[in-house]
Write a structure and sequence with these properties.
The protein contains seven helices and two strands; from the N terminus they run ααααββααα. With 170 residues, the protein is mainly alpha-helical. It has a domain at 1-88: Arc Repressor Mutant, subunit A (Orthogonal Bundle), CATH 1.10.10. The chain has a two-stranded antiparallel ribbon. A hairpin with a 4-residue loop joins β1 and β2. It starts with 11 loop residues before the first helix and ends with a helix.
């Protein structure tokens, strides 16, 4: 796999990494979910160079994660708003935050608490099966090649081998 062609791979993870797989894109998305929208706000909160920020914002707009909306005419300035595609990244961002809270925290505790507006409780994100509602873990999931997999790809072969081993081991 080549870094500049990840978006063309028959692998959902590789295609996602093509969009959000660098630290600046993830941090920009964090700020978007914290309701930061303007270039100068991103730059001041992240301490990122203008060139790098412009590059990452363009990429997120090109992939349809953000949309650019003018808020000022002279000089022309834009806000960057999450699209539905961008909002759908929320569980990913929350999973990364939760992992960081558990594995990268220090004695001061979590830097941010997340409260569910409906029940008013501070929560931990949980990934559940869309069919039965049970929490998911890596050991509770089997992987099978899907209709979008290339039959000759190493990913397909590897998934098929794992599936065969899992069936044999019961």
């Amino acid at each position: 796999m080549k870094w500049d062609t990840l978006e063309e791979e028959p692998c959902s993870l590789a295609r996602t990494v093509a969009v959000i797989g660098d630290r600046w894109s993830l941090l920009i998305l964090r700020e978007c979910f914290l309701r930061i929208r303007r270039f100068d706000e991103f730059q001041s909160t992240l301490g990122i160079t203008r060139h790098l920020l412009a590059d990452r914002l363009k990429k997120l707009v090109r992939f349809g994660v953000l949309r650019r909306i003018p808020y000022q005419e002279s000089p022309k300035r834009y806000e960057y708003i999450l699209t539905q595609k961008g909002l759908d990244l929320y569980p990913i961002i929350m999973s990364i935050v939760h992992w960081g809270d558990i594995h990268m925290g220090d004695s001061r505790g979590r830097p941010m608490l997340h409260e569910h507006k409906t029940c008013k409780k501070v929560f931990d994100p949980v990934m559940v099966c869309s069919e039965c509602g049970e929490p998911l873990t890596a050991k509770a999931v089997h992987v099978h090649p899907g209709p979008g997999a290339r039959q000759s790809s190493p990913v397909h072969a590897s998934a098929q081998e794992r599936a065969n081993r899992a069936v044999k081991s019961g």
